[in-house]
Amino acid sequence: MNVSASAPGRICLFGEHQDYFGLPVLAAAIDVRCHIESSSRSDCQVHLELTDLGTGLTFDLDDLGEPPPRGYWLSALKVAHAEGWLPQDGWNATVTSDIPQQAGASSSTALLVAWCALIAERAGKVVDSVWVARAAHRAEVEYFNEPGGQMDQYACALGGVHRFSFQPEFKAETWPIPSGEWLLLDSREPKNTLGILHRAKTERLELLQAWSDDWDLLSSELPPDFPPSFSAKQRALMQGTLDLRSVSEQGPHAIREFPSDSANWAVLLTEHHRLLRDILGVSTERIENLLLAAQSSGAWGGKINGSGGGGTCFVVGPPEATPKIQEHATSMGAVAIPIQLGAPGVRVFQQD
Questions:
Q1: Can you list the positions of beta strands (E) in the chain?
Q2: Domain span at 219
Q3: CATH code of the domain containing 147
Q4: What is the mean pLDDT of residues 281-285?
Q5: Are residues 167 and 188 in the same domain?
Q6: How many other C-beta atoms can be found within 10 angstroms of the C-beta atom of residue 37?
Q7: pLDDT tens-digit profile of 7-22?
Q8: Are 130 and 158 in contact (CB under 8 A)?
Q9: First CA to last CA across the chain, in angstroms?
Q10: How confident is the model at residue 145 (pLDDT cuts 50, 70, 90)?
């Protein structure tokens, strides 16, 4: 039996670093994808050929062992075993990806989403994209007790452009695709995902708990005054968190109401970036230079993508600005990738 699976990368338009507070985010799947092609074996071995990395991995379904930190290939097999959707027979798989690696465009999550879908298909389990997203979250975040939220798994599994709400229950609302020519700019600068997530999440959670016992960021009521014990730095961090919540609400609604009128939402992309940079410290000098060069070339707006600390950013502008933006990015040692928003989510195909 041959089974293939693929999943898209994603950009986060509005809402980075707030899905783990239960707040909504707006994310778009993009038309760069990872691909896994597999064929059955007659034993219990699973062999992966990671073509882009020039290496391979082998697992024994009868003796999986414990995965190393961020060993998502194996953690997914472990979760499948624990939950009863691990196939009995092994397979060979070849893995390729068009998504910039470790750059904030969800390359790891897209691979894991496709991997979970492929495992389930090989086990004969009928699944939908929401199930795949949740399985990937269990294998990626819950298994390793990592600090990330759920945006990436849902964005890669469902595809399209969605506003994801997580409280009081999960909800995925289809959103219009905003206009313009979009470019994903890969800075080629390594990012520190877990370090930034720990600082952005843990520190703020502690301050929120100290702020009030009966108010949180999900409340529509006005927040209480800051405690006298808060330092000026802590007050600025919490005020910035409120500002991030506000722009992450304004931006999606502007896109929904005026998807073809960039003047109503592109400026909010840039404002969102400013807050992420100044409040959470997620940007870098290289990212800033790329965004400034794009703006000077005619981009309407743009922002860092994903957790930050390097990796990718994205910009949007009129078609005539694209060549100059690409030229500037290339001259700075970055890679400018034209992208289409609203790509299909996870796909699985089986051939006997």
A1: 2-14, 25-40, 45-50, 55-60, 91-97, 161-165, 171-174, 181-186, 301-304, 312-317, 335-339, 347-351
A2: 181-339
A3: 3.30.230.10
A4: 93
A5: no
A6: 18
A7: 999 999 999 988 888 8
A8: yes
A9: 5
A10: confident
